[in-house]
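Entry for the shared binder. Reason: the reviewer on the internal report wants the predicted structure included alongside the sequence.
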Amino acid sequence: MEDAHHVPRWKTLLAFGIIYFVWGATFFAIRVGVREVPPLLFCAMRFVAAGLLVYLWATAKKEQQPTARQWLSAFLLALLIFVVDYGFLFWAEQRVPSGIAAVILATIPAFMALSEIIILRTQRLTARLSVALLAGIAGVAVLMSHSIDLGKLGKLGGAPIDTAGAVGLIIGAISWSIASALARKLPLPSSKVMSSGAQMLAGGVMLVAVSAARGEWRGFDLLAVSGTAWIALVYLVFAGSIAGFTAYVWLLHHESPTKVGTYAYVNPVVAVIIGYFLGGEPLGARTVLGGMFVLASVVTITSMRTKTPAVAEDAE
């Protein structure tokens, strides 16, 4: 491993640029894809492809294959992360703007903090943490509320987001946080590459089954999918999952987890900006105010210390 003091600065900047901007843009790519492809099927296509490529990469590097127990752990985590969290994200982006979806999923650190309190017991519910959690909840409430009176400033403008979509995203955020806590207790491959590949592949396989059970394949014409949607899928597989994961793991070996964790509050900003300029998504006072509450919550929580360092693997 390269000495952190002798790593070329351009490599560090490139890696941060990938987890900031490439991952931030994945939300818009999802929005593009689910306009034409059923959401769970599109999600399955992404993670079967990405998972298979990463798994084969790890195998080619002669990484140790997962044991039966480790495969069971991978399937459990994949159910929570890819089927529930990503499944709801892809489904919700049919109803909620991509930038708003990113803002709501930015509440994941808040739910992770609750998971650390309840499951891992590595965190205490302090006054600072309580305020941060309430700020995150307030941000989502602002985005969902049908009427917010600001006194002399009048009522908050902009239409509230779809309730079902917002609830789905919150369920996904909770599911991800539970998986992050369980990942520190379950037996998993020591290789991060093999572990990630196994989980993505397991998630992709389960998503194929769930998509089929929901009847998403009936009447779907693969040949009718436009080149734009295929480009979105290629971006999600190679840029979002493979390049993003590679940059993320590399940074964890060369930078502090706190610095690497800053992607959690940069991604939503990038997603909102891309959605506004490329997708024509609304960017009103409601989005700005709700986003500020959520980001304040994320910044506060990610800057807090725990008894043991928390490292959450991501596959944006």
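Summary line for the report: The CA atoms of residues 111 and 174 lie 6 Å apart.
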